[in-house]
Amino acid sequence: MVESEVNLTKTYDAIVIGSGAAGGMAAHVLTSHGLQVLLLEAGKKLPIERELRSMEWPYDNPYRGQLPPDSHSLSFNEYTIRNPPYGPGFEKAKHLKSYIGSSDYLKNIVVNERENPFTGTNYAWVRARCLGGKTNIWGRLALRLSDYDFKAKDRDGFGENWPISYSDIAPYYDKVDLYLGITGVKENLPYLPDSIFQRPTKLNCAEVTLKDSLAKMGRVLTQYRAGVTTDGLKHNKYRSRCYGRGACERKGGCDIHAAFDSPTGLIYPAMDTGNLALRTNAVVREITVDPQTGKASGVRFIDNQTMKDYVVHAKVVIVAASTLESARLLLLSKSRQHPNGLANSSGHVGHNFCEHIMGPGVAGRAKNLVGKPSTLDDGRPGGFYLTRFRNLAEKHPKFIRGYGFEGGSGSTMFPRGTDAHGFGAAFKEEVRKNQGAFVGMGAFGEVLARYENYVDLDPFVKDKWGIPALRFHYKFGDNEHRMAEDMKETAQEMFEAAGFEIVNVSGRVLTEGWSIHEMGTARMGSDPKTSVLNQFQQSHDVKNLFVVDGSAFVNASCQNPTWTIMSLCWRSCDYLADELKKGNL
Ligand SMILES: Cc1cc2nc3c(=O)[nH]c(=O)nc-3n(C[C@H](O)[C@H](O)[C@H](O)COP(=O)(O)OP(=O)(O)OC[C@H]3O[C@@H](n4cnc5c(N)ncnc54)[C@H](O)[C@@H]3O)c2cc1C
Ligand code: SF4
Predict the structure, then answer these.
(1) pLDDT of 132-148, one tens digit each?
(2) Which residues line ligand 2 at a C-beta cut-off of 6 Å?
(3) β-pair type (118-120, 468-473)
(4) Whole-structure pTM over 0.90, yes or no?
């Protein structure tokens, strides 16, 4: 890998803030256009293979894979009954982690909540401050959006349409598929367009039973569409093809990088162009503005380790710090020309925040598989995806928009869903007998993008670096709660129809934020009065400023966002490079 030196006295063509899915993609596309790019990342470059240890057996780990004793990961109840930054009651835990940081393998990837406080309404905010951000540990379900999402307002009258259609982004989805690799099976569904898939994984016995039963109900179950290369990528020497090692299930990333992550998928290849300089431990605290022109002139950042302050300049600034952090940064960047925060003449920065509601689901047993020999069911990057079926041809009387289910079945390294009780040999026998018959699924539903769901800056609380913390004003609404009731009912109905023995049906809604799919805080639109960015994720107010992460989404859809984040970003960066060459920025 070619590491270019960082030169803080130089004016770069572009500064990219954040190195996750969005920042990595911006670095890749802009360097491939020949631009000189500086990538600033708040966290460290971790020796990621040593962190993930995907093939380590639990008995080889001193904590059996759990967190060390001086650390604590927040539980569901702790999110709902304690106020962040979690003072009294958590004194013993030197390191306080989000719910997702509950294993020894993720402890250095997710942030220490104490150093990164936030305030306001309940929110399970998962942040990964390190090179690659959340892509090091993402679940890899890689789905496209369709005009059912981009033009959702035309269908039900709620919110706004996106300023683009599927045909605008489709060529970029194709580019992302081919550059990064994705596995799945074509289904020809208008509301969930197909990708250019590599070798698919196989559904197992109970999954096929469910698929066949759902087909009779007009519902579609398909193989998990994973952002994983199953055939390998000849153009990328940093990634291996998937060997189906059975480690994906263990709450962590893929240490051979068959699953997409931003460093090996995008950043290292971008470095090899010789056009990318990377500075980690660089916490950007402000986007600076030229007092004459009002345009972005660069950024101010603090070195994470030395706490020293630096300024660096560029012709274009690209914000890719993830939806919530990007909004925070825009709000922090107040100046005489932009007193409300940068790119915020509309007052919409931080607003229209949306995500996915989670919780309802079902677990059961395929009775014909109880007592059968174990099979290698976690030797693949995912189980199944049950696609949206509400508000497509017919209107649901109680809610608008839709939801899908993620699920899986069969034997795994850690047996799932067993209701066995007791201890000793009899208990083990019971677990063995039932685990291969397990089948379960959980729903992800669209949370409506509403102006009144927003984040702003807390006037008092600051993070470890003295930067004002984010404050949430965010709650699920009636539409989401009615949808959650339906999720529970349909989950049960579908398992019953498949003939599964139901072990548990849950209607409990998880804390806001649990889905880790954040969107909408700087939405795109054609009207600068009601939107922050244009269709190329370019600020209406500041033409050399782009926000290329999930902030730009106009609604959340119910499909996972990361493949769309990267496709939109690719499209915007092609436009940016062209505009820069023409002298328009
Ligand atoms: C456990 C888990 C499972 C997931 N599963 C899925 C899934 O199945 N499908 C899906 O589509 N998505 C999934 N996601 C979400 C997915 O990871 C995110 O959508 C994606 O990573 C967003 O990319 P991003 O670049 O916007 O943010 P990130 O990947 O979070 O990257 C942002 C980067 O910016 C850096 N940064 C933040 N603030 C600053 C600052 N001030 N200065 C400098 N740098 C800064 C951060 O340190 C970070 O590295 C999952 C996430 C998690 C954690
Ligand atoms: S199943 Fe494939 S993608 Fe998942 S950890 Fe194993 S090699 Fe990586």
Answers:
(1) 999 999 999 999 999 99
(2) 54, 228, 242-245, 247-248, 254, 256, 258-259, 380-381
(3) parallel
(4) yes
